[in-house]
Amino acid sequence: MLFPMLATLLTGAVQAQSPDPQVIQVRADTVLVGTPGEGWTPGQTVAVYVAEARPDPRTDEPVQGLRYAGDARIVWVGPELVALVLAYPVAIAAGTPVRLGSPQGGEPTPAWQAPAPVAAAPPPEPPAEPRPPSGLVQGLMAVHLGQVHDDDATWPQALALEGGLIGDGYDTGAGWGAVAWSLRPPEGPGRVEVRLEGLRGERWVTGKGDEPHATEPAVGYWLLTRVDTAGVGLAAYGVLGAGVDDVGPGVALGAGLRSGHPDRTRIELSWQGRGRMGQRFVLDGRVALRDDLRVGVRTRAGTLPVHQGDFLQWRADGALVVDAVVRQRIALQWALGAGGYDLPWRDLGLVADGRVEVRW
Amino acid sequence: MFWMTLAAPALAVGFSAETALISSFGPDAYGTLHLQLAAGPELECGALVIGGTQPGVLATGARTLHLGERLALRGEVRLGMLREQGPSGGFRLSGDLDLDRLHAVAGVDWIARMGVRLEGGVDAPLRDGLVVQPRLQLETWAGQRDPALRVALGFSLATGDRGWVRIAASVGGRDVHHMGPGMTLAVGRTP
Predict the structure, then answer these.
(1) If contacts are CB pairs under 8 Å, which of residues 62-101 in chain B contact chain A?
(2) A281–B80 C-beta distance less than 8 A
(3) Sign of CA dihedral A7, A9, A13, A17
(4) How far is the alpha carbon of A162 from chain B, nearest alpha carbon, in Å?
(5) What number of other Cβ atoms are within 10 A of residue A95's Cβ?
(6) d(CA B101, CA A93)
């Protein structure tokens, strides 16, 4: 009855191998049950199992398991160490986890060997020097978004269509739509996006005493480029573009910080400016519930289109955002919330928008 | 293959919900509700609702950084709107220093046109899963009023399956004529 119990009594790691390759010492400070050394006496015979990793046949990931290394005789027992003499000369490296059990009396199981190749493989070629990626965009991405190791690897692309409305309870809300094409390097979360965006809003018209007394429509169209760096812990992105509104041409600028992978749990804080059409700060946090489903909260605080350069009206909105990936190729996003000039319900309007992205 | 027909697995998602009612028997009573979701130990996002003297609703996003084995820093960004004040934003920055048996904690909380709140204290484990949390707070919360000093005593209890409950009681105010009680209750689950 003693040896079945021993199987759970001692689990440790090989401390050192003495000059005699058949003598090993096992640390007993990770004993699972009982007091170290209790029930052990020199002279007992036990089976020795050593931890060994084999590749998973499906994923090739190393999987830890146990291999029988033959029986051994306990020659010395102390409160922290147990010394064993192996019945067969088995090489066990220092630090290898070991478990002892009931003696089997057999020969050690051979160590796992990688299967021999079926046909003689050609001699491995020396690793190729990284080649400069072809094309201006890929070159920029290789420099700024991450090292490209395989020039022939596929660069994922996506085409997105999005749009929505930002209500504010005073019929001065905005509507917008955009089409965007993006390109990612094969490795890393970096991205380059080219975007065509249209925005229709209302600007307050000031009268005597600089008090706003009426509104007039404002429309603008923008061509934008956005570049995301490849970081996951902390990444940055910049937006540069140009456009025209119903007053004249303007410049679009933007900058943001992101923490987390863009397609998983992440937080993004950004500032965006669209010439005279206004500016806004955006805080967008998403939490991945599953690999293909995220929920989050998005708030935006910004100004309405400017009239005569002096009067700035601020407005904020918040929305619950849900996004899902369907069959790895289509990403959908919905946002629903409220926004306006103040918190009471009568000052709030509906905020709703959506996005469809096709990836290939 | 069998494993290829499985749906995408659910990730370990954590959450926290904290509500507080603070009164100084004056005009600066306020209550808060802070809901957060987290899919990992380092990133959280949620919403903060503030009621009372200066109401507001803000979204929050937080990141925790571990600097070495003993120091953890948590930064939280907030953006939203305050009643009659319009859009507003702020941050909370807090640190946790592991001193073996004790944890020293400190934090600063700021929202534009809402005020600032400084907090310091220790987390001292009493027994498995139970931590006592004395705190000292200095705040101009609820509309940037005169500074108020508050002393709080809290207890945090770990429950099964990575859950936890925290309760704290406090007393303080702007002066001896404007002092009142406070109560904080929080529950959560670590992802």
Answers:
(1) 62-63, 77-84, 86-89
(2) no
(3) negative
(4) 23
(5) 11
(6) 37
Residue B163, beta-bridge partner list? B159, B189
Question: Judged by CB atoms within 8 Å, which residues 119-178 of A form the interface with B?
Answer: none
- Going residue by residue through chain A, which has 360 residues, state the pLDDT in tens, using 9 for 90 and above: 333 333 333 444 555 444 555 666 666 544 333 344 455 678 888 888 888 888 877 777 788 888 888 888 888 777 667 788 888 888 777 777 777 777 888 888 888 777 766 666 666 676 655 555 555 555 555 555 554 455 567 888 999 999 999 988 887 888 999 999 999 988 778 899 999 999 998 887 777 766 777 788 889 999 999 999 988 888 999 999 999 998 889 999 999 999 998 888 999 999 999 988 889 999 999 999 988 899 999 999 998 887 665 567 889 999 999 999 998 899 999 999 999 988 888 888 999 999 999 999
Give the gap in angstroms from C-alpha B169 to the nearest C-alpha of chain A.
Answer: 30
Q: Is A20 on the interface with B (CB under 8 A)?
A: no
Contacts of A316 in chain B (CB under 8 A): 79-81, 86-87
Question: Per the CB < 8 Å rule, is B13 touching A289?
Answer: yes
Torsion of CA B73, B74, B75, B81, to 10 degrees: -150
pTM: predicted TM-score of the whole model, two decimal places: 0.70
**Straight-line distance from the first to the last Cα atom of chain B, in angstroms, rounded to the nearest whole number:** 30
